[in-house]
Amino acid sequence: MLVKVLGQLTVVDSDGGLLPAGELPRRARQVLAVLAARHDRIQSKDALADAVWGEDLPGNHAGALEHYVSVIRRRLQPQGSPATWFIVTRSGGYLFDTGRAALDLAGLRQAVRKLDTLTPGDPEQLRVHEQILGLARELPFPEDPYADWAEPVRGEVSVAAVNALLKLSSAALAEDPPRSLRLAQEAVELNPFLESGYHAAMTAAVAMGRPDDALRIFERCRQVLDSELGVAPSAELAQIKRAVLASRSSDLAAPAPAPQTIPTVRTSTAPHERFLGRLTEIRLMVEPQTPPVVHIVGPSGAGKSAFLAELGRHTPGRIGIGDAGPAVGVLRLSWLRSVLTDLEASPAAIEAVDRALPDHPLGQAELELIAATFERPEQVFLAVDDARDLDASSVAELAWLSRHCPALRIVLAYEYPSQITGRPLAGLGTPVVMRLSPLTAEELEPLATPGVRELTGGIPALVAVARRPRAVADAVAMQVARRRTEWMAPPAWEMLRVCAVLGDLGASELAVLTGHSVTDVLTCVDALVHAHLLNECADGKVGHASALVRDAVAAQVSAATVLYLRKQLAAAS
């Protein structure tokens, strides 16, 4: 049996015969659609009723749901039984079992996940994109265009379709420019705010020798961005337009701009920072046998929060993220409430968290309610940012959930492994610890910003502000430096100051300038290098890893102090 929700609801039996899904009562079709949209997790009757009826719940919504599920089973599986029904009753709720009935939406999601396992340039990528495009030609749930439960799924399908269209358009450009243009124009129709679509369409039009079409495409982009967002097309798009105009005025054929790597599509039209690197870490997290507990560590500004958000993009609907930083007193379980909200847990599970007393762990009944959220056929992630200060009760609750929920993967983010020594969090164990290092020059290449590695040291927080006003960049750089040195001995900050104004220095020079022993200096140097604030040079000296940090620290040093330090250094030489 095959259930199709991409486009009009269609159900086909094992012999290829069309079943009367369109004749189901409207509410029954909605119940089936919601279960299909959330096929990877059990839906409690409360959650399912909230999606179907919203605030207009019937008096006995549980009974109404039971009736509509029964109608679906009778109409679509008249000869079925509990052993074969694809809508399975489980844990007091319902689950669309894709092992008993194929679902086109599940196939699309599986194909998107497969892309994450393929290396860049793998020919298999294009085949998977063709598969995605074949599935996502139509958006799901056209009967419910404004339903809250349907909107995220439509966005998910739209993103997958646009990415596939742009990748295939780029691949077709050299040998089949007309197809490249058609695919790019389809991408523009799906997401008229995405400049990548206009870029691909203009590039294809130029390759076909149709400069007037390229200019019309640019003008449409300009009008859409101006009227809807109040912004102008990017400099890159404007450059293509200028090249087209120049070729027309000189009556020469303009060479087609080289195909561009199409960035991952996001549904938001608001400005965002591009996520760079971390490919190995993301792949480890999304592979089928992810360890039950993974620790993500890195000093302030290493991009831990951004990494969790990016993991969420790769696992839509299967990750809940909470911040344990403010989780004290009455907010002890604020992180867990955020996780459950992200995962659309049942109202009963969220209420169990809200009722919890600050100084009391959750009981067995409450934990079982919460555990139902993680009972899914695919792995589901519970991520805790700033997790180092989780109290003993929270750690015990996480341990219980980990033992009783086979699909659950716990991701804990904090700065240094040494921070959890002697703390309750150490009780969860550290089977896998991934340290987020600075971004490499290769990982920063997509920014096309010369010298960004030297400017930022590859620290993600600094990369994000490298092209912003200098006052903003300096403030962030100073914050990163302060946060990364707050656990170090006091001489460490002195060494940062000295290297900021005098350049690369050796251990003996630092000892003279700071008045500390060489042993103390080397201890601080080790810590500063480990924190990626200083780099070791070939001549044995050390210097700042980031020009932004160097300049921000140097700005705090007076001219009189700089003159004094230079005299000291000259005397020591």
Kindly report the spatial arrangement of strands forming the biggest sheet.
Answer: 9-10-11-8-12
Estimate the global geometry from the Cα principal axes: flat
The level of helicity is: 40-55%
Percentage beta strand: 5-15%
Average pLDDT confidence is 86
Write down the CATH class of the largest domain.
Answer: Mainly Alpha
Low-confidence stretches: 251-273
According to CATH, the fold-level topology of the largest domain is Arc Repressor Mutant, subunit A
Looking at CATH, the homologous superfamily of the largest domain is Winged helix-like DNA-binding domain superfamily/Winged helix DNA-binding domain
Gyration radius (Cα, Å) is 28 Å
Count of the domains? 4
Q: What count of helical segments does DSSP give?
A: 25
Number of DSSP E strands: 14
**CATH architectural designation of the largest domain:** Orthogonal Bundle
Please give the alpha-carbon distance between the first and last residues. 83 Å
Q: Which structural class best describes the helix and strand composition?
A: alpha/beta
Largest sheet: 5 strands, parallel
InterPro entries: AAA_16, AfsR-DnrI-RedD_regulator, BTAD, OmpR/PhoB-type_DNA-bd, P-loop_NTPase, Sig_transdc_resp-reg_C-effctor, TPR-like_helical_dom_sf, WH-like_DNA-bd_sf
Family: Belongs to the AfsR/DnrI/RedD regulatory family.
Pfam family, one: AAA_16
GO biological process, one term: regulation of DNA-templated transcription
